[in-house]
Design goal:
The chain is mainly alpha-helical. The chain has one domain (4-178). Helices cover 70% and strands 0% of the residues. The protein has 7 helices and no strands. Helix 1 crosses helix 6 (113-148) and helix 2 (23-43) crosses helix 6.
């Protein structure tokens, strides 16, 4: 398993090569979005937000926003260290925080959550290729992290591991009786 410094170094080194892959299809804007998303994904939205990590510390005082996430997920769980699922869950967590802040700050003039969602939908319609590029950048940096950890397949939650172990024991016994 790589150290936090190793993850950060690899993320910084590979952001530009990854981003340049987008030049032919999306030009300089695609390169900028891909590089930015790769860096944000590796340095601020890392799969290691489920621990006290460099990524968590980078949030400064806002790191408290990740405390419930850290408490709900065990490190290297299916929900934090899975391809696609981990990145999507972190983005959903952030989105829910934005909507909650919008609702809470409504009396102070913040737009209501419905308007925030409508703005997100309009952004999706207008900038779909760049938003997909951004998600791909976030996901690619997550894959880099998982590969550096040595296994891109996360551990199943404990109850599922116990259930599978029990099923294996039972199936091995039944094979013994068949012979």
């Amino acid at each position: 398993m790589a150290s936090g410094r190793s993850h950060d170094r690899a993320t910084r080194w590979l952001a530009l090569p990854f981003a340049l892959l987008w030049w032919p299809g999306l030009g300089p804007m695609g390169v900028a979005v891909a590089a930015g998303a790769f860096l944000v994904g590796g340095l601020w939205l890392s799969p290691d937000l489920d621990t006290r990590s460099n990524a968590t510390r980078r949030w400064g005082p806002l790191r408290l926003l990740w405390w419930p996430y850290r408490r709900l997920l065990s490190h290297r769980s299916l929900f934090s260290h899975s391809p696609l699922l981990g990145t999507s869950l972190r983005l959903l967590w952030l989105g829910s925080l934005v909507l909650a802040a919008s609702a809470a700050l409504g009396p102070l003039g913040a737009p209501p959550p419905g308007d925030v969602l409508q703005g997100g939908l309009e952004l999706w319609r207008a900038q779909r290729p760049l938003l997909l590029t951004a998600f791909t950048g976030l996901e690619a940096s997550s894959w880099l992290h998982l590969l550096q950890d040595g296994d891109p397949i996360p551990r199943l939650p404990r109850p599922l591991r116990a259930l599978l172990s029990q099923r294996r024991r039972l199936s091995s016994r039944s094979r013994w009786w068949r012979h």
